[in-house]
Design brief:
The structure is a single chain. By secondary structure, the protein is an alpha+beta fold. It has a single domain, classed as Glutaredoxin, CATH 3.40.30.10. It has 10 helices and 4 strands, in the order E-H-E-H-H-H-H-H-H-H-H-E-E-H. A 4-stranded mixed β-sheet has the order 2-1-3-4.
């Protein structure tokens, strides 16, 4: 972490609308809160499987609440998440493994594109309701995020490499080791230990905890 800054890691998957909300809030507050924000693309499917968690929409009452909740939060945080009942089926049908490997590949090669690329994936999936599992859609997302086309093509080839697959798997396992069971999983490092905050509705708490502790 840079001098006097609290290292905060954000583990996320673009399949998760709450991760998008958490991502935008942390992007906005990183300078106010004096945090060293690190984006950690991980795979939500792997976390769910390892911890026995189920998508919130599997519980009808919770699905009903989630529709209202995401709409309220989207409005409050001014993030263009568009959610409807059809999205629950769409999520179960779509794998973001390719997208998360693509994002992992950018993290390994050109991390300066990590923020705009991740955001663009959320926009395509959650605002424009596109299928981001197809290679041509992944390339369209990359183009919108400002990646040169030769770089995007190279990254697309990288997603089937063991280096990228292993990196995503390791990051996912790291999140689980910190105690994550869903996304977003935000890990703040202070007083020499990691502190896990789950979800996008605990970020004010995170800010207050960081404000009260003296970074090492």
């Amino acid at each position: 972490a840079r001098m006097g800054r609290t290292l905060v890691e954000l583990f996320y998957d673009v399949v998760s609308p709450y991760s998008w909300l958490g991502f935008e809030v942390l992007c906005r507050y990183q300078h106010i809160w004096n945090i060293d924000l690190r984006f950690r693309p991980a795979f939500l499917g792997g976390i769910m499987q390892a911890t026995g968690n189920k998508p919130p929409a599997m519980l009808p009452k919770r699905a009903e609440y989630m529709l209202k909740d995401v709409k309220r939060m989207a409005k409050y945080y001014q993030v263009p998440v568009q959610i409807s009942e059809n999205d629950f089926q769409r999520i179960l049908r779509t794998s973001t493994l390719g997208a998360m490997r693509f994002i992992t590949a950018i993290d390994m090669t050109k991390p300066q594109y990590l923020e705009p690329l991740s955001r663009e994936f959320w926009i395509h999936f959650w605002s424009q309701h596109e299928d981001i599992s197809q290679p041509e859609n992944i390339l369209a997302v990359a183009r919108q995020a400002g990646l040169p086309s030769e770089l995007a093509q190279k990254l697309l080839e990288m997603i089937s490499s063991s280096a990228v697959k292993n990196r995503l798997k390791e990051t996912t396992e790291e999140a689980i080791k910190y105690g994550a069971f869903g996304m977003p999983a935000v890990v703040a490092h202070f007083n020499g230990e990691p502190h896990l905050f789950f979800g996008s509705d605990r970020l004010e708490l995170l800010g207050s905890v960081i404000g009260e502790c003296i970074p090492n």
